[in-house]
Amino acid sequence: MSRKKETITLSIPSGTKEQLEEIARKLRIFWGKSPSVSGLLVAIAQHEFEVGEPFTLNSTQVVALQQAIGLLKDSGFIEQAQTISSLLLERGQLELPIRQQILQQVSQPTEAWRILADQFRQNQQPFHLLYANPQFGDLSFTVRYAEITFEEKRFYLNIWCDEDDTEDVANTDFPELIHNRCLRLDKIKGVVPINGQWRHEGLDNLKVYLHFYRGLIKAYEPKPNDISNEVIGEVRQVVRRVSNPFWLVREVLRYGDDCEIVSPENVRSLLQQKIRSLCQLYDIETMT
């Protein structure tokens, strides 16, 4: 039994029928071999196609996609990052500075260095790296070991390099770590392979003792670099290999008084200095 159909009469300006047929043709809505205006109207009524204002991205969606682009680029998915960048340019409600920034990213050639760096790491091939340091300008490093880690909101390239006296060595309190560097992936300008030996020992590191108290005794989540993790009375003691105290201090500050750096003294002192600076900033008197 055939479905009952209704007939409507439309009064439309000259040329509109041809325009509707062209839309139906693009959407592949046909009656036989001809584009079907009736079929187009039915598809719109059944919400098979979007009508009204063009699809756009609001400011929150733009920010989220920008973050996704950064993560994709850091992870080596350059083509996918370019695809999302094009979507932002086409559909995003972008302020002029952001539009110019994305246009510049899209127009740049594929970041071959990112793929090369992965190949060098996998092949244990030493390489020369050029890095754009915002404070000191371009710096070069001879890389003997490299690994990529995720810290807080982005990926970083951690390297062991020959250089131990470049301008970016900001903290000399850790001579054991003076060959380590933590580099933002988007600041690397190029890599070139060199002859030499790969460092199989990895990054230099310190053995740091941490104590966790109260709720964190049970709630603490083990980290990949933890050497040992045990509950001793009212304390959870964690021993961890640390290649960059900067990230450790930021982590411990989030725990508040539920975590303490016990040793070594130079790492403990780094946190003490940070706390003193915060107290001065907020006019809190401290004992020296």
TrEMBL record:
InterPro entries: WCX_dom
Domain WCX as annotated: residue spans: 238-277
Name of this chain's protein: WCX domain-containing protein
Species in which this protein is naturally found: Richelia sinica FACHB-800
